[in-house]
Amino acid sequence: MSAEHGETGEISGGEEIVSPQRIEPTMEALQPRRIAARRERQPDPHTPLPMLLPAVPMSMPNHASNPQTPEPGQELLPIAAAPHAPDLLTPLPDIVLNAPVINPVTPSISVMPPLLPLRPIMGRLPMSATPQTATLTDLRRRKHVRKVFLRHLSRRQLRAARAKERQLSRRMWTTIASTALSLLLIFLSIGGATAYVAYKFVSTTQKNYDKQLLTIRDLLPLDNLKIYDSKGVLLDQMADQGLQTTVTFDQVAPDLRNATVATEDKEFWSNAGVDLPGIIRAFLTNLQNGRIVEGGSTISQQLIKNLIVGNAPTIVRKLEEVVLAPQLNSNYTKKDILAMYLNSIYYGHLAYGIDAAATVYFGLQDQPGRSAASQLDLAQSAMLAGLPNNPTLFDPAVNFQSATDRFKSVLGLMYSQGYITNVQRYDAINEERSPRFFKIGLTLRDLAPHFDNFVLDQLMSMYRLKNRSELSRSGLLVYTTLDVNLQNKIQKIMQDHIAQLRAAHNLTNAAEVLIDFHTGAILSMLGSVNYNDSSIDGQVNVALAYRQPGSSFKPYVYVTAFAQGASPAQAIDDKQTTFPVPDSIPPTYTPSNYDLRFHGHMTLRCALQNSLNVPGVRVLNRVGVSNALQTAQTMGIASYQGTPGLSMVLGGLDIRLLDHTSAMGTFANGGVRKPYFSINKVVMGTTGKVVLQHQLAPGIQVISPQLAYMMTNVLSDNTARIPEFFDCNLLQLYSNSQQDCLNGNRGQVRPAAAKTGTTNDFKDNWTVGYTTDFVMGVWAGNNDGSPMINVSGITGAAPIWHEAMLLAEQGRPIRNFTNPGGLQTATVTYPDGVTSTDLFLPGTVPTFAPTLTPAPPDGSPTPTPSPIPGGNPPANEPLPTPYCSSFTFAFAPPGDNVPSPDPGWW
To answer: Cβ-count burial of 662 within 10 angstroms (0-12 exposed, 13-18 middle, 19+ buried)?
Structure first.
């Protein structure tokens, strides 16, 4: 080679080529060594390959184009290697993976890396080879090495690519598995947490409401308090907190039950308390409409909402319903659930429960053995079944068209579900069009307002309540003593009589009390002629008001005198009398009679029956005010207003008609005091448990039967009262009219004892009397206290008493008062000449020692005994006419200046 190629003629390692004898062994001889060296220098397969130098294209020898290529036969000059050129025995450097790969099976090589220096190779070739042969052999060898190297490199790259692919695959599947596992864990975590939360919610809900579910009947709203008369007629019910009457499943009309199920929960009889398709359907419907137009709650859920969880519009409340509804269905039958539902829902107009709704909307009344709810027909049932969804929107009294549309919709549901036929549907529609279909509000009228208020006050006192609202939803059924049918008839009598006297006599009002004195039961109590008439203060119960009784108070004073030994035959002088009244202004009291006259000597029987005032005051003065008041109180005058004094006998104290009537009943009951009462029993409506039962007590004997009979005998003596009241007066209970009586035809006469009373200023007028069955008191007057005009006891209250007593006694046998015995009948002539045959208590018949008249000095006949002080009256003096026919005069009474002996006349 020429020097311009930079060759030095030396190879690496400092060896010099000097002769053929020094040529290296052939390739075959060197092959094991090269393989060993290659193995020693083989890189770790895990070590990255180093970067190769850029490949330089290598061309196959071209003799034509290469002038340096020797011609055949021409000696090839050795090529000097570049300094530091690697020996061919030295393994080639590794090639990076991104180097171009030559397929070893390709027959031709178009691109080759730069040829290595040939000098070292030539130095190892056999010297016998020709230059051309050495070159071809070298090329083949190099090509073979290259081919082996490329094959090795390719395999290595394939192994690396496959390893990387396997690694990527492993990573991918690892990622997928990790992601799936993570999602599974997340799902399981969320599902587990959800399941745990759901479990806790269900268990907590069941735990919180388990007791309420088991006792759900106790959670039903209590019925409103109801008051019934003695025959089971509903008088009134407290409606301030709504009306409700609990009924059983069988006490509800089948049409109403079917209409409710068809409207509220068509799968009620088959579902387990929850209708999931219904809930989903309602949710989608409401979502589509943007508002709540359909509910998915079953009847069981609605019952739980109404009674247990409340009606808050929250998802928690809805879930609680779903949790509890199946449990409710497992604890109770479907009939029980439907009955509880119908008893707890609101129908509008203060009607809670179906029975109250039947009463409020259609006027149906509970009857013994037949509830109002059981009387509903198809049309009424369909109307009521549509109300609970929205009682305000479908209120027929306000939105009649909406109510009608809803009514038709309910009928359509019943028809589509097979409960009714098409004919029945149209018959119901025609019935609803009737103008008398509804009777809203007609049944809420209080039939006995004064009496009912009195009963409520008694209940508050018995149960120690502060206000009536505590009784409203007590669930109590109060059965009273009242006979409302009889009371209504008595009220009509009162109204008619007051109407006759109102204009001419300024009489506007009246009150009445009727008592069965045998038991004390109040059969009638009318506090006014019209509770709703504000012009007369009709709502004031005058039966409980304090008014002056007038002379009707006198029997308590007179019976006190009888108890002290007097007799109805006792003589008394009706004359002007002035009584000292210490510590009073003025200090004296001078009473006068109603007719402003004095009637002389008479008996107590005559004085009392003609209601004379002066004798009454004289009797009270004799027996003592405190004694007479004590008698009145023990007999039943429980309270009074005013100051007791001599005017008390004329009605100076204000007392109540109820007390006065009851006290007079003590006379009728043989002296036994039976306190009045108005409540027979109280029952808890939902359970039927009797919480109060009036016990008939034997009563208290406050006066002896003999005293009671003596007073009854006097007060029933119609003959004795004729001077003041005339015959055929209205205190006598004859069966025919007064005009028939005056014509001589009284008809049957029922024994009766009565006493009238009129105040001096004519503000109050009374009649109190009794038969063998009842005692009745009647008051007439004006609530504002204005005086009546020309109204006495016999014209104001007595006509009402007469007709009402005959009405109360209809159908009862006529019986006379019974003499209890133990009384003595005697005829006594008193020192004033009054002779009377009457009743006396044993040992009280008076005797009078005669007084001898002195003989004249001329020897006249022997003096005769005189029954009066001062001697016998002149033989020719005429006897006065007795004021009453119940007594006579044995001789003329003494003058007013003659003092009365003791005993003597009063």
So the answer is: buried
